Amino acid sequence: MNVNIDQSWKTYLNPEFEKPYFKDLMTFVESEYKNFQCFPKKSEIFNAFNHCTFNDVKVVIIGQDPYHDIGQANGLCFSVNDGIKHPPSLINIFKEIEQDLGIPYPKSGNLMTWANQGILLLNATLTVRAHKAGSHQKQGWEQFTDATIKTLSKEKSNIVFLLWGGFAKKKKKLIDTTKHIVLESGHPSPLSANRGYWFGNKCFSETNSQLEQVGETSIDWRLV
Length: 224
What we know:
two-stranded antiparallel ribbon; DNA repair; 224 residues; 9 helices
């Protein structure tokens, strides 16, 4: 399977593409897409990288798995295609932005405008079989996305990493916290949010504050 990923990333991640685990992963993904309905579309698997070049990354949001229902996943974590009903976690993300920044709840759940501003919306696993959550976990994607996080940590500085929930918080060990900013909170899923671990964390205004402190342009969290 061709790795349809922006050249800026290839410069840093080429060593991963040559490793046996990654070649096995691509064989697995090719087979899954051939024999089953999988998400996102094959052309969108690396969307997180293709809409946010390596040089542009200033914020990283880490998710776990793509959405597994028809028409939802578009290669960006937490994001859904235009016209698709917002999943519960995304609803709570938008509610927190509304409370934190006074930005009205958006019609679209497509986070492409965030990616285009330098937010890497990275799922740990980049593909999934339809209606089978977690079906492509432990096939090599996690090794690849961990390598991505480590590379960003090593090669760049002053990135704001947003770690939402227990799974994402485990990635903190991959990040050099002496030169990057790590903001941790509960997950925006209803289970976590309704227990008081999400709402009021103000991670969106805090992200902008941290970016401004290091001379970076803040994020416009509106979905235009």
